[in-house]
Each structure stands twice: as structure tokens, then as C-alpha cells.
From TrEMBL:
Domain Asn/Gln amidotransferase: from-to ranges: 237-384
Highest taxon of source: Bacteria
Subunit structure: Heterotrimer of A, B and C subunits.
Pfam short name (any one): GatB_Yqey
Protein name: Asp-tRNA(Asn)/Glu-tRNA(Gln) amidotransferase subunit GatB
Source organism of this protein record: Candidatus Nomurabacteria bacterium CG10_big_fil_rev_8_21_14_0_10_35_16
PANTHER family named among the record's database cross-references: GLUTAMYL-TRNA GLN AMIDOTRANSFERASE SUBUNIT B MITOCHONDRIAL AND PROKARYOTIC PET112-RELATED
Keyword Ribonucleoprotein: no
Length: 387
């Protein structure tokens, strides 16, 4: 029952969206010589029979290579899943069978003509989509290259995850073979003139494509970071809360980097880790960008506030983690290190500028980690230039 036609998604043109009912599922079992069922048997699983299905059909799309085809097919499936999630239509969990992909594949030596179509059914993971499409294209291409194009028949194939290969299920299917007929329980939809498509579009939530464009424009963050937020709605909401408080593009970029690397790294190591409040995380970034704490200290404090959501300033103050930027205090430390390390100083003055980092490390250790590294480097260069 077609309900939508036209449009596009992730560079694919959409033919239509229609409603179906799920059918019973045939399950075939090999024979067991230890029982009376030695000849093998088949069962029909009616568990999902009658469950409503929405199917989206795309127009054919050609790509330059097997790799490109497999990757773009997977990209489309991922983007469609995101749209369903953003709209609240479905959780589209492929492992639970809430979303499946059926890939129609063909290869041809004639750019103006499609080859014989093969459909790979019921792909239940993005990895399976990419691998099945790649495998089937490889298989069909080899047959053409070996002048065995006649062996490519219109058929339905399945995907064996264990063998990483497709296998034949049914052949020579046409629309007549499916015995399509109108569903008496689905009457024709008659849309009233007051049905305003433009108003409905306004009521929709922001979709992934629009969110990508907004993040690029408003925040200027890396594409990889944007995809992390696109794929995790809760993470995106937290990030936007942080960005609203920081209200500065450079600070927002730093915050995003800490979220997509350090925070996500902590979460992968410990599932109990939760995002701190946007207020506390923004406070952490402000401490860092104002040179009140070092990047190392910022990471240490982050590891604390994802477990116990506390003020980073309070933690830094109580644990003596705040950096010292007092030039008079730091100058005394720098001069002391210069006086105690004449050999390293001579090496630096001899042209090996990297030797200064040894002096910097000693100065930071002398300050018990409280010295601002940038200020220390600046003072070393100034004092060594004078001596």
C-alpha cells in the first residue's frame, strides 16, 4: 500500500514508502539420523505474521567500484535508521529485527543497461549489509569476467554470516510470484484539503542532515565529532548544553574534543560513567582555557566528575591542582633550575633547543605540578637569552 513517493536520502532517490504485513517465515532443518526425522523437515514460524511493516524502496543507483557501492549502501541504511530514531517512529534495532535491509544488486558491462538483478534478503546488521553487497558484487563480477554471465540468474539469496557468503534461496521471482493483492484492512487514504504538508514539516524534529549543517555553521567542530553527536542524541543534547554556556567557538571546539575523545574513552572503559552537568563540564573547559589548570589536570578532574558530578574549581582548589601563573614565583623556580643544571643549559645554548624541555620538566616538578607550562617555557627562554 504505497503512502509516500519521491524524495531523497543520503544521495539515494526514493521510489516509494509502502505498508505491508509481515509474513510467516519458513525454517528448514537438516535431518537427524538419531531421530525419526532423518529425512529433514521444514517448519513455518508464524510469530511475526500480521505485524505491520513499512518498506522504503529506492531508485537504482550506480557507483564506480565495488567498495564504493558497499559503503554507500551501508551509509544509506545507517542514515535511514537515524531518521527513524529522530522521528520516534521506531528504535530500528537491527539485532531485534526492528529494521532489515534487502539489497537488490546487479552488475553490467554496458553502462546504459542494468544487469540481471539479485536480491539479498533480511540483512540484520550494517556489517552484514556492507559485506553481503561486496561479496555478491565480487561473485557476479567474476562470472561476467569469466564469460559466465548466463549463470547470473534473477534470484533471492541469503547471507551466511558464518561463511561470509551469499547462498541461493529462490529463483526467477517476479511480482506475479508474490501474489500481491490489495489488503482489505487498509482502505485508501483520502487527505482533506486542510492537510498542510508545509505545516507538518515545521512540526517535525530536526533531522540528521539539518543537524549536521547547523553544527558545522554554529560550532565549526570536526566532521568526526559531528557524527558522534548525530549518532547519539543524548550526547548531542549534553554537548549543546555545554556549548550554550561556553558561548565561544574556540572553547566549544576544545570542549567537543574532550567529549569525543576523553569522555567517550572513559565511558568505554566503564559503562557506569555518566556525563557531568553541562555547567560543571563548561566550568572545567573554562579553567583549562584560562590556564588555571593544565590539560593533564583537566583529564584527571574529568575522570572524577563523571563519577561524582562536582564543581571542577572546588576539586582543583581542594587538591591543590590549580596552576600558578604568578611570574615572580615562577621566575624564582626557573632561575633555581638554571643554576642547578649548567650542563643542560650549555646543551641548549649550543643549539639543541629541545634541551629546554628537560629544564621545563624539572621546573614543573619543583612546583609540584602547579606551574603553568607555557609561562615556564617563556621564562626559561627569556632568562637563558640574558645569561
Amino acid at each position: 500500500y504505497p503512502i509516500v513517493s519521491g524524495g531523497h536520502l543520503a544521495d539515494f532517490d526514493i521510489t516509494r514508502v509502502h505498508l505491508e504485513e509481515d509474513t510467516a517465515n519458513n525454517k528448514h532443518f537438516e535431518g537427524d539420523t538419531s531421530t525419526s526425522l532423518s529425512a529433514g523437515f521444514s517448519l513455518i514460524d508464524f510469530n511475526r505474521a500480521g505485524v505491520p511493516l513499512m518498506e522504503l524502496v529506492t531508485e537504482p543507483h550506480t557507483f564506480e567500484s565495488i567498495e564504493d557501492t558497499a559503503k554507500n549502501a551501508t551509509k544509506f541504511a545507517k542514515e535511514f535508521q537515524l531518521v527513524l530514531l529522530y522521528l520516534g517512529v521506531s528504535e530500528a534495532n537491527m539485532e531485534k529485527g526492528e529494521m532489515r535491509v534487502e539489497a537488490n544488486i546487479s552488475v553490467s558491462t554496458d553502462k546504459n543497461k542494468f544487469g540481471t538483478k539479485v536480491e539479498v534478503k533480511n540483512l540484520n546488521s550494517f556489517r552484514s549489509v556492507e559485506r553481503a553487497v561486496k561479496y555478491e558484487l565480487d561473485r557476479m563480477t567474476k562470472l561476467l569476467e569469466e564469460n559466465k554471465g548466463s549463470e547470473i540468474v534473477q534470484e533471492t539469496r541469503g547471507w551466511d554470516e558464518g561463511k561470509q557468503a551469499t547462498f541461493s534461496q529462490r529463483s526467477k521471482e517476479s511480482s506475479e510470484d508474490y501474489r500481491y493483492f490489495p489488503d482489505p484492512d487498509l482502505p485508501k487514504l483520502k487527505l482533506h484539503e486542510a492537510f498542510d504538508l508545509a505545516e507538518m514539516k515545521k512540526a517535525l524534529p530536526e533531522l540528521p542532515e539539518a543537524k549536521r549543517a547547523r553544527y558545522q555553521k554554529d560550532f565549526g567542530i570536526k566532521d568526526e565529532d559531528i557524527e558522534s553527536y548525530i549518532n547519539d542524541i543524548e550526547l548531542a543534547l549534553w554537548f549543546e548544553g555545554v556549548a550554550e554556556i561556553l558561548a565561544d567557538k574556540e572553547k566549544i571546539k576544545i570542549a567537543s574534543n574532550y567529549i569525543t575523545t576523553d569522555f567517550i574513552g572513559l565511558k568505554k572503559a566503564n559503562l557506569a560513567v555518566k556525563p557531568p552537568s553541562a555547567k560543571n563540564f563548561a566550568e572545567l573547559i573554562n579553567l583549562l582555557t584560562e590556564n588555571k589548570i593544565s590539560s593533564r589536570t583537566a583529564k584527571d578532574i574529568l575522570a572524577m566528575i563523571v563519577v561524582d558530578d562536582t564543581s571542577p574549581l572546588k576539586i582543583a582548589t581542594e587538591k591543590n591542582m590549580l596552576q600558578t601563573s604568578d611570574e615572580n614565583v615562577l621566575k624564582k623556580i626557573v632561575q633555581k633550575i638554571i643554576d642547578e643544571n649548567p650542563e643542560v643549559v650549555a646543551t641548549y645554548k649550543g643549539g639543541k633547543e629541545n634541551a629546554i624541555m628537560s629544564l621545563v620538566g624539572k621546573a614543573i616538578k619543583e612546583s609540584k605540578g602547579s606551574a603553568n607550562p607555557q609561562m615556564i617555557i617563556k621564562l626559561f627562554k627569556e632568562l637563558l637569552a640574558r645569561s
